[in-house]
């Protein structure tokens, strides 16, 4: 079983069809890309575990309590940002620009404190 890179994360691996196995070191990662899921937490985790998805992120963060799931080891290349996958870590925050309550200051503060 893969160990998590962020000790507070729960390991729920993405389908191996949805990322590239690599051996990146810390120095190979120079950016963090933060997305919102445009859907719910469970649906996002499920989608990244579906071999047909062809997409993944290293981490998914639940909006209600800041719970973090790691889906791809940081040494591997998640497919979340076509132009920058090789040198980034991808983090998906549960939320949607169409549902403004996902990004309220209270929820953002809770995520930062987690």
Summarize the structure in words:
The two termini are 24 Å apart. The C terminus is likely disordered. The chain is globular, with a radius of gyration of 13 Å. Helix content is 16%, strand content 21%. Strands 1-5-4-7-3 form a 5-stranded mixed beta sheet, with helices on one face. It is an alpha/beta fold and 114 residues long.
Layout: helices, strands, pairs:
Blueprint: E1 10-11, E2 19-20, E3 31-36, H1 41-49, E4 59-61, E5 68-70, E6 77-78, E7 88-93, H2 105-113
Parallel strand pairs: 1-5, 3-7, 4-7
Antiparallel strand pairs: 2-6, 4-5
Key attributes of the depicted protein:
114 residues; 5-stranded mixed beta sheet; two-stranded antiparallel ribbon; 2 helices; disordered C terminus
Taken in chain order, the helices and strands follow as: EEEHEEEEH
> How large is the count of helical segments?
2
Number of strands: 7
Helix content bin: 10-25%
Q: Main sheet, how many strands, which sense, barrel?
A: 5 strands, mixed
Strand content: 15-25%
- The overall average pLDDT, rounded, is 86
Overall 3D shape: globular
Radius of gyration: 13 Å
Strand order in the sheet with the most strands: 1-5-4-7-3
Low-confidence stretches: 110-114
Q: Can you describe this structure in just a few lines?
A:
This protein is α/β, with parallel strands linked by helices. The chain is built from two helices and seven strands, in the order βββαββββα.
């Amino acid at each position: 079983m893969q160990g998590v890179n962020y000790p507070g994360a729960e390991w729920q691996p993405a389908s191996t069809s949805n990322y590239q196995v690599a051996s990146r070191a810390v120095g190979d990662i120079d950016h963090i890309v933060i997305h919102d899921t445009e859907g719910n937490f469970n649906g996002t985790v499920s989608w990244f575990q579906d071999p047909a998805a062809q997409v993944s992120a290293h981490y998914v963060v639940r909006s209600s309590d800041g719970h973090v799931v790691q889906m791809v080891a940081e040494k591997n290349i998640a497919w979340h940002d076509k132009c920058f996958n090789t040198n980034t870590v991808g983090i998906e925050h549960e939320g949607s620009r169409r549902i403004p309550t996902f990004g309220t200051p209270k929820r953002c503060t809770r995520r930062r404190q987690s």
